[in-house]
Amino acid sequence: MMQGIMDLHHDIFFFLILILVFVLWILVGALWHFHYKKNPIPQRIVHGTTIEILWTIFPSLILMFIAIPSFALLYAMDEVVVDPAITMKAIGHQWYWTYEYSDYNSSDEESLTFDSYMIPEDDLELGQLRLLEVDNRLVVPANSHLRLLVTSADVLHSWAVPSLGVKCDAVPGRLNQISILVQREGVYYGQCSEICGTNHAFMPIVVEALSLKDYCDWVDSHQF
């Protein structure tokens, strides 16, 4: 979905460049040819039927070409994965995140649940990013359809990872869900995007995408 939005942006920008060049050409041409020194007595032309028809039809066609993929993307963004490989839950707190892998919970005592706090600046290791690193990352398998349930335990939060193209509000007493497909392995950073209090800027999000084998090994080592 995010890739589709970026491609649509690039396509629309192409049309914008064409329109900009055309309008500038018309404007400069009008200033050059109709300067008061060249045409001290202007022609009394009030209407040009042909050009008025053209500048009504062509923008309408351009808007239609833009609208068709836009509606398709809007419809696709509202769809959720029917049968995801994994369902996870993100709970916002003041000011940290709690992650729960519901598929692996066999009981209340045996569950894969952990809190994710930002690493203080004094504890950062070489190569770690300030204000973005956490002690426990959300680990997911790459190239798998994932469902993330998002909620809050206190105030409004927002779970947002721009590089994955996802942003979902965490509302107390409400479950929102988003679909994620991480196309390649790596580490993706995000932050809470809702002003949730004094430490709003200090509850980052780190998603680590692993291969399916490495992900299974991680689950085995962290499950209980």
From TrEMBL:
**Which keywords does UniProt give here?**
Copper, Electron transport, Membrane, Metal-binding, Mitochondrion, Mitochondrion inner membrane, Respiratory chain, Translocase, Transmembrane, Transmembrane helix, Transport
Catalytic activity from the UniProt record? 4 Fe(II)-[cytochrome c] + O2 + 8 H(+)(in) = 4 Fe(III)-[cytochrome c] + 2 H2O + 4 H(+)(out)
Q: Name the Pfam families for this protein.
A: COX2 (PF00116), COX2_TM (PF02790)
Ribonucleoprotein found in the keyword field? no
What is this entry's stated membrane topology? Answer: Multi-pass membrane protein
Q: Which GO terms describe its cellular component?
A: catalytic complex; mitochondrial inner membrane; transmembrane transporter complex
| GO MF annotation terms | copper ion binding; cytochrome-c oxidase activity; oxidoreductase activity
**Membrane-crossing segments per the record:** 12-32, 53-77
State what protein this is by name.
Answer: Cytochrome c oxidase subunit 2
Q: What Gene Ontology terms for biological process does this UniProt record contain?
A: ATP synthesis coupled electron transport
